[in-house]
Amino acid sequence: MTLRIYNTLTREKEDFKPLVPGKVNMYVCGPTVYDYIHIGNARPAIFFDVVRRYLESLDYDVRYVVNFTDVDDKLIRKAEQLGTTVPEVAERFIAAFNENIEGLGIHKATMNPRVTENIPEIIAFIEELVANGHAYENGGDVFFRTGMFPDYGKLSHQNLEELQLGIRIGVDERKENGQDFVLWKAAKPGEINWASPWGPGRPGWHIECSAMARKYLGETLDIHGGGHDLQFPHHECEIAQSESVTGKPLATYWMHNGYININNEKMSKSLGNGITVQDMLTRIKPAVIRYFMLSAHYRSPLNFSDETIAQAENSIERIANSVANIKHRLEAAVSEPGEELAPLKARIEDIKAQFNAKMDDDFNTPDAITAVFELVSEANLHLQRPVVSPEALQLLLAAFEMFDRVLGLLAADEALLDEEIDALIVERTEARSSKNWKRADEIRDLLAEKGIVLEDTPQGIRWRRK
């Protein structure tokens, strides 16, 4: 089956055909680094991590760029509040972002370019727009002429007339058209700034992505992604800027993930219901967060609540316990001469085909997870047998590992499956043998605090997470 992607631009699923066979250039808009990232930022970070992983599983060479907006009004205000500088604010929250991303089991992007490291390229891009008449300067600011780009609105499926009707009274009088947007902002007294042909200032929000995408990935991207809220105006403006310079499509496929609600309410600062990733990671296991994010189709809304997290915890426990049981049985498994593995191999291949078919259908992760549970059921049936060969167990384990390389539902929790716990169990067994009951009880309590349950089996003591 061919991979098909729902293209926001055409509102249709299309066969995926990269510009260069075997290679994929993917750009996803990253955070404005003025604060800790929140649950809404985590959804595209996790989803596009899975997109990248799946493409790599199909043997594509993926060049994945996620930018950092490290200068804008929010950073300037934050620096004023903290009594520090914009670069220091950016460094602090980029470090926090990287820590959170690692905590969520997200693979690092190929690169994370920063606005402040690409000012010459941004200025050069604006100069091209001014030179070809698509931009103009007024009072040290530079604006893009939306009226010069007939396709403005094609991504969000709006037109300029409709957009004009929605413009608020009091629009900047220096604009020729109310829908024109800023490319370069003249610096206010005391603000961080860079020299430019139009005077000291800094880039507008939209231009940075156009300039960095062209620099690091070329004039046309295979995939451009981000949250649903970026369709308009950010991605619409990116298209207008880039295509006005290159005359080529900015991206072949546009992908946007849906919103996250908190307890069935839209997440917003006014409601005060935002949840940071930093906070989530202190209360919820990374694998559970990933499962929650992937449990609904990426284009659908997603509701965060105690109930949905509890459901994700139960699901992750089922998968993790099945894998742990396989590993435990594997330690004492003995080969069975003449064992027929063909039926198991065929069943696993069928489950893999189900998984790939769902992922090929616009990255349908909830249905792909259903295939993972098919594997859980198959594994549990085998584990009920008195004797299971290591070959059969290894086949099952390899299938789980294949799924995990794409979804990351087990690797994100590997820190809990470490040698320290195994060593403690050995120490507890030795303490019991030597009748050191105090130490044995201490270890039992310590493991209980870590959420580790000990179970006696015919093969010896094994452990699992609650």
Q: Could you walk me through the main structural features you see in this protein, from its secondary elements to its overall organization?
A:
This protein folds into 3 domains: 4-283, Rossmann fold (3-Layer(aba) Sandwich), CATH 3.40.50; 314-412, Four Helix Bundle (Hemerythrin (Met), subunit A) (Up-down Bundle), CATH 1.20.120; 419-465, no CATH class. A hairpin with a 2-residue loop joins strand 5 (135-138) and strand 6 (141-144). The strands form 5 sheets. A 4-stranded parallel beta sheet has the order 4-3-9-10, with helices on both faces. A 4-stranded antiparallel beta sheet has the order 5-6-7-8. The model is unreliable at 165-169 and 412-417 (pLDDT under 50). With 466 residues, it is α/β, with parallel strands linked by helices. The protein is built from 15 helices and 15 strands. It has helices spanning 39-57, 73-82, 86-103, 119-131, 160-165, 205-217, 231-246, 277-283, 286-294, 306-332, 342-360, 365-383, 390-407, 419-433, 437-449, and strands spanning 4-7, 12-15, 23-28, 61-66, 135-138, 141-144, 181-186, 201-203, 221-227, 251-257, 260-262, 265-266, 302-304, 452-457, 460-465. The two termini are 39 Å apart. Its cofactor is Zn(2+). Belongs to the class-I aminoacyl-tRNA synthetase family. A motif ('HIGH' region) lies at residues 31-41.
